[in-house]
Amino acid sequence: MAITIPEDKKKILTKEIKAVEAKLEVNGRFKETVAKIEVLVDSLTNFDKNLKTIDSWMQSATAELNDIKEASGAMLPEDRVARTMDLQEDIAAKIEILKSDAATELELLPQGDKVPADAQAFKDELARITKYVTDLAEKTRIECDKYSNDVKFWAEYRTGIKEFTPWLVNAEKAT
Hints:
The chain is mostly helical. About 90% of the residues lie in helices and about 0% in strands. The chain has helices at about 5-70, 75-110, 115-175. Helix 2 (about 75-110) packs antiparallel against helix 3. The chain is rod-shaped, with a radius of gyration of 33 Å.
């Protein structure tokens, strides 16, 4: 456009172009800042979603463990071990997510003595969920150990029955 206009207007147009370019530079810096904020918001949103997902999962995992405990009389020992081991795998996966969330928390949220209330709420929620899940992992491990012992004793019982049955049959025939 600057090529086709008369010489006297080129100076004015050049000044206007420089003014617009200066404004565009500010716009570029603004876009960079907005992009950083968008990344922060996305990270916080994912962090919050992870916490909410694990929080809702905690209730079902606790119910699963209680179901295993309450239905243990009606289940085979092998089934109890399998279900508690599945639950342990789920818990281990959630603990890995919580570890990455802890790293995200250190990266995103302010640290120190004076933390804003909204950031502290996220920190407290992460700490509560982490404690609950680690406690649940410990309870599940204890139950799995108990049921593993049950499997061992059940196998010993069945082996004993198999050894005792022929002797019992022979003793009944003898009488």
